Amino acid sequence: MYETKEEKEKVILVKCALSTENDIDIRNSIDELEELANTAGAKKVGEIIQVLPKFNNASYIGSGKLLELKELVDATGADTIICDDELTPSQADYLSEATGVKCIDRTVLILDIFALHATTDEGKIQVGIAQMNYALSHLSGSYKKLSRLGGGIGTRGPGEQKIETDRRIIRNRISELRRQLKEKDVSRHNTRKKRLEGSIKTVAIVGYTNAGKSTLLNRLTDAGVLSEDKLFATLDPVTRKYKYEDGEEVLFSDTVGFVRRLPHFLVDAFRTTLMEAEYADLILIVGDASDPDLLNQLKVVNETLGDLGIEGIRRITAFNKIDILDGNAGSDIEEKLPLKELGLKKEDTVYMSAASGKGVDTLLAKIRETLHEGSVEIDMVLPYDKASKVQLLREKGHLKSEEYLPEGIHITGSIDRELEYLLK
């Protein structure tokens, strides 16, 4: 009997920083690349950082660093080179030929993680679209065959260049995947429509990947969502119901995490998933308070929401993982977090730990308070000939209590201000 275990792929991380970048941003970027590599199941065995005024057109990092990279590959026995920026096909080929190992870029790595973690049909289709879009933008004369097309009957004549054939195959595949995704989205749209027609409010949980969104959803609703200290641990949206003590219900939707420099075609591919935020009554942004790069991460989240055209929805920012910070007093935490730089108001922020539960009750109270802004409290006696309005309050608002009296039905609850006229 022999014990066998899967060997982790050994990778070297390569970062070509532009002269305009500062040391902190460079370090944060390469550290995030390492986290992505770990999530994909790889092991970092070395790194190369080069600073240039612009990327080298041929080798990305220049001839001098390329020799250093080749020596590092030989010394470490690395299997793969991962570059922190999107490479052209010629740059990837050049690096691979010069070092003798496979060379991929940040986008390919993210796509690999997406493919690894997508579990639903919808998620797999979205990953497929993203992969095809990437392949389409990186076709070159040396691009490997995507089909078994060859010579023979039906292929004679002037024909077309191989690269054009590949483009056509990819575009057809993208069209087919988009058709499948549209069918899935019809079902999701109908589900959203039912939510909007009902009285239950929806909160979309968004944030940088690994900020603790899934941990929070599990804490609130026992959702059983995979929660790991890895980037993109969950991709598919999950919606679960939370019930307050008085019976009021709220839906929480966990969405895919954001990451810096996420290519637009990746955002587009996951647009249907991220649209959970567009249909929400409230957006809950979760940030990792213990991360030194918190400021940039929250900027990425807000920029991505802007790219999706999600504006005008009330937002709350929850600073998670406060238990990891030194000192748990609220005043100390406020001094450490960049509220002014983010343009955040104190009344729109909450400090909490999804893992320990600290501050979660405060968050729930803040969510409820915010959701009820613009609502009016109802405390009235309805005559029995208007008893149907009790059901209307159940459907369109929140019915707290009902008591049947000789003179009518005494009801208490709340309803959106613009719907108050329905009860008169």
- Number of E-type strands: 13
The succession of helices and strands, N to C, reads: EHEHEHEHHHEHEEHHEHEHHEHEHEE
Number of helices: 14
Strands ordered across the widest β-sheet: 6-7-5-8-9-10
Integer average pLDDT: 79
In this structure, how is the largest beta sheet organized?
6 strands, mixed
- How far apart are the termini? 80 Å
Question: Mind explaining what this structure looks like?
Answer:
The chain has 14 helices and 13 strands. By secondary structure, the chain is of the alpha/beta class. The strands form three sheets. A six-stranded mixed beta sheet has the order 6-7-5-8-9-10, sandwiched between helices. It has a four-stranded parallel beta sheet with strand order 2-1-3-4, with helices on both faces. The protein has a three-stranded antiparallel beta sheet with strand order 11-13-12, with helices on one face. Strand 6 and strand 7 form a beta hairpin. Helix 1 (23-39) runs parallel beside helix 4 (106-117), helix 4 (106-117) packs antiparallel against helix 5 and helix 5 packs antiparallel against helix 6 (162-197). It is elongated, with a radius of gyration of 26 Å. Residues 141-159 have low confidence and may be disordered.
